[in-house]
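hi! just following up on the protien thing from before. the input was this:
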Amino acid sequence: MKKFTHPDFQTRLGKLIAELEQALHIEVVVLIKPRSANYDDVPLGLGANLSMIMFSYLFLVDNSFDSYLVYFMTLSAFGLGMLLGIVLPIMQRLLAGKQRKQRNVEIMARALFQKGGLHHTSTKVGTLIYVSLLEKMVYIVADRGAQMAIPDTEWQAINSRLASIFNAKNPAEALLTELAQCKDIFHQYIPALENNSNELPDDLSIDL
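and the predicted 3d structure came back as:
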């Protein structure tokens, strides 16, 4: 997802976040990460399955194969499976399992929220919008001030719209569009104060 790391996108995202925080009494941080976890077992599993399929085929077909050919073709199938699992992220995304990916994304989002100190704002309105590219998932962690100010139905709508960005032809542009549309909802429930201060940097970078 090179579009998410393009300097033009990063500039536009920074400006959008700054505009949101000027108009609202909410501290929004958007973090985009390549992945939420390593799925090293996926290439191993894929290699093992392909090697078993190859071995079964060579063993069951009527044609006779020399022992060395059976050995090397089975080993090659394992290597091919490993290579596909490592080189093609889509293989990890498809084979890791939905629940496992959701759990990893949530764990990473909450860990980044804590490490980034988003829970230290004076009015507890720190909100993390976490985008995990390999899993193609978005997870929102909102501090209790923001969580209580905005009804659950609105949060569900925001989550649903942000999650849909990966269905668009250009997910990066879709993210900017959906973030801009969040402004009206946030403004309805958490409008800017007279002396609105920015307690968190807009370009906050957090690594675990």
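The first strand starts at residue 27 and ends at 33.
The chain has a mean pLDDT of 86.
cheers
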